[in-house]
């Protein structure tokens, strides 16, 4: 019973790796489940046994890429620690995620898919958005502790993360600019923190 489980896990991993390669090379629209199956060396039926649709497979890839870095950025609110350092840890982890070539390539694929078929891409975009919740939750906890001004936590989280993306996501996605080096990452985070805390810290 143990061996088939390991084989199933290996096949699932092969499918995901093949899909990453195909999506990066050909985009979402052109990539087919047949081609993913061929690249993975498994049957098309095996692919569908693991992933009921191409959208689900793509969403799982994005989730795995995000989760890999989210584990490093998972910071619970600490009432006895400086706000700046806690938030800095989360924001730097987000910038490191945006510097990941696999993530950025697949983000381009997701955005292109959303442009061509907004309805079909809604699930992918929604599942990506769920990963933004860590900053919102942290802000909500800091507000409950009386250390941040009462304001819409989702708005505040979107605002501070937007400051990062204006330097480290959209220029790379839309204009092919290189990822930020560590010096620039620190400068962007510190500037975003200055603005956020000046606006919201009590």
UniProtKB/TrEMBL annotation:
Does the record's keyword annotation contain Manganese? no
- What InterPro entries does the annotation carry? DNA-bd_HTH_TetR-type_CS (IPR023772), Homeodomain-like_sf (IPR009057), HTH-type_TetR-like_transc_reg (IPR050109), HTH_TetR (IPR001647), Tet_transcr_reg_TetR-rel_C_sf (IPR036271), TetR_C_Proteobacteria (IPR039536)
The record ties this protein, via Pfam families, to: TetR_C_7, TetR_N
Q: Which residues cross the membrane?
A: none
Keyword vocabulary terms for this entry: DNA-binding, Transcription, Transcription regulation
- The HTH tetR-type domain sits at 9-69
A GO molecular function held by the record:
transcription cis-regulatory region binding
Q: Which residues bind DNA?
A: 32-51
Sorted alphabetically, which PANTHER family does this protein's record hold?
A: HTH-TYPE TRANSCRIPTIONAL REGULATOR RUTR, TRANSCRIPTIONAL REGULATOR TETR FAMILY
Q: Mind telling me what this protein is named?
A: TetR family transcriptional regulator
Q: Which organism is it from?
A: Pseudomonas kribbensis
